[in-house]
Specification:
The protein is an alpha/beta fold. It has three domains: 4-130, Rossmann fold, CATH 3.40.50.720; 133-216 and 279-372 and 392-423, Dihydrodipicolinate Reductase, domain 2, CATH 3.30.360.10; 219-266, no CATH class. The protein is 31% helix and 21% strand. The chain has helices at 15-25, 40-52, 65-72, 86-95, 110-123, 137-148, 167-170, 179-182, 185-188, 190-201, 219-224, 253-258, 263-266, 368-381, 396-415, and strands at 4-9, 30-37, 59-61, 76-79, 99-102, 127-129, 154-164, 205-213, 284-291, 296-305, 309-316, 319-326, 347-352, 358-360, 394-395, 419-420. Strands 14-13-12-11-7-10-9-8-16 form a nine-stranded mixed beta sheet. The structure holds nicotinamide-adenine-dinucleotide. Nicotinamide-adenine-dinucleotide is lined by residues 9-15, 37-39, 42, 62, 80-83, 85, 103-104, 132, 188, 332, 369.
């Protein structure tokens, strides 16, 4: 079998998963033939790791990307740079005749999004967006239950995501802390959540109203803690003994070798103070979305919570489905599996109209991001992936629809008005989603009613 040729651009923490998949798991049908990063130190680090695996891979700086494509002749470019650089590499790769596999968020604003939509249409190249959250077994199970019609057609969703003071705080230390890099948490993080809702409901958003603020990770909060001597970053900070957010990169081998030891190449500090004045992303966000299917959603995202995970409830014409999910405590690069689910804190309950509610046994998964990462590899990398009735493999259409909710939320926070998605981009088709229960389906009247208290029963 001829092996598919992959190159990677952006060689930070997340990219390692892709290097491993290609070199350790898929050696029969994939090979890594080029590495590219704007940081010479991280580039070298990955090339050294590849050499340890017995593979010599040529390296290229960010501005040698086109040279890499010309010399390595890849079939697929894997894009795992910081978010704001995705569009450049996605578009150049497609223009130069390659398919693309990109990390979320596909990009950070509407003009970059439009360029990706247009370039994909003009070149006809494939552009996969790796939405690993869809593949986490309990989240697939929610899709399965909604497709089964157990609660009828969904008319509204209550969705609340909590990021804790470990993982949530970390967004305020890294490049994510500035919207010019990440689009803020409405784009960077919530793209996962907005994609889940689009896919769970098999629909796309129409209007978005949002309100947000930075309430917690502020210089004033540091003052309230009495952290008056804090430095620009954790490294060498005079408050390191007292600050609950102090993070010592020297204590984490991966963080030390990837970031601390490569600062001289680009001046990037991965441990900036979470209370820094230059942060311009929100930590408290509330959003209302209307969908083409007629459904409504109320959504919130908070990044300074005591536990990490989410609660989501779907209100349907035949009942309500509630799903709660608790994740393990981690931050990116700390050496643990990112975003594993806590089985004891992950539940799914169904409450049919007029009958007693019941708990459903939750589908289990192991591995990163709720067990989604390993399932996703199989679907995205194998030459003959298993048939998927949930249509979880996403392309640039789903990538676009998911970020546009966040982009519209950012705009709504600025202007104070609801924002229409069709004002942001044009020529964007609906993704391929599985059919869902119809809103025209006749409903059966209940016979016996057992869920109601006696005084409400006839
Ligand atoms: N799906 C998930 O669950 C998940 C989890 C983590 C990260 N991610 C995504 O993966 C991507 C990478 O995140 P990360 O945590 O690895 O970040 P990171 O900071 O560790 O790595 C980013 C890498 O890109 C390089 N880079 C930045 N700008 C570049 C440019 N213009 N040209 C070439 N290289 C450039 C940096 O030097 C760095 O090596 C992001 O888009 C992030 O949103 C997704």
């Amino acid at each position: 079998m001829t092996k598919k040729r992959y190159v990677q651009v952006g060689l930070g923490d997340r990219s390692m998963m892709y290097s491993r998949i290609v070199t350790e798991h898929l050696t029969e049908y994939a090979e890594l033939v080029g590495l590219c990063d704007s940081n010479a130190g991280r580039l070298q680090l990955r090339a050294d790791w590849m050499r340890e695996q017995g593979v010599e891979v040529p390296t290229y700086s960010g501005d040698q990307f086109e040279q890499m494509i010309a010399e390595a002749k890849p079939d697929v470019v894997i894009v795992t740079t910081k978010d704001s650089a995705h569009d450049h590499y996605i578009c150049r790769a497609m223009e130069l005749g390659c398919d693309v596999m990109t990390e979320k968020p596909m990009t950070t604003d509407e003009s970059k999004c439009q360029r990706i939509i247009d370039t994909q249409r003009e070149t006809g190249r494939g552009c996969k967006v790796t939405f690993n959250y869809r593949y986490a077994p309990p989240r697939t199970q929610v899709k399965d239950l909604l497709m089964s019609g157990v609660i009828g057609n969904v008319v509204s969703v209550d969705f609340h995501w909590l990021l804790d003071t470990k993982h949530g705080a970390d967004y305020f230390r890294r490049w994510h802390r500035n919207k010019r890099n990440s689009g803020g948490l409405m784009v960077h993080k919530a793209t996962h959540h907005f994609d889940l809702v689009n896919w769970w409901l098999s629909t796309v958003p129409e209007t978005v109203y949002a309100s947000g603020a930075r309430n917690f990770y502020t210089p004033e909060m540091a003052e309230r803690y009495g952290l008056t001597e804090r430095g620009e970053r954790c490294f060498g900070c005079p408050e390191s003994e007292r600050c609950p957010f102090y993070m010592d990169m020297r204590a984490y081998p991966k963080l030390k070798s990837m970031y601390l030891e490569n600062e001289q190449y680009d001046g990037y500090y991965r441990d900036k103070c979470v209370f820094g004045a230059d942060i311009d992303i929100e930590d408290t966000m509330a959003v209302i979305v209307t969908y083409r299917s007629g459904a409504r959603m109320s959504y919130s995202l908070h990044s300074f919570m005591p536990w990490e995970g989410y609660t989501v409830a779907f209100n349907g014409t035949k009942g309500r489905l509630e799903h709660v999910c608790m994740e393990t405590v981690y931050f990116s690069g700390d050496g643990t599996v990112p975003g594993e689910l806590k089985p004891e804190g992950t539940k799914i309950k169904v409450f049919p109209h007029f009958h007693s509610g019941y708990e459903v046994e939750v589908w289990k998964g192991k591995g990163g991001h709720g067990g989604g990462d390993p399932v996703m590899w199989q679907h995205l990398f194998e030459p003959n992936p298993p048939e998927d009735k949930y249509l979880r493999a996403a392309d640039q259409r789903a990538g676009a629809w998911s970020i546009l909710t966040g982009v519209a939320a950012n705009r709504s926070m600025e202007c104070g008005q609801a924002v229409r998605i069709d004002e942001l981009v044009h020529g964007l088709a609906e993704p391929d989603y599985p059919p869902m229960p119809s809103s025209a389906e006749p409903l059966e009247l209940p016979g016996e009613v057992d869920a109601l208290p006696p005084w409400l029963k006839r």
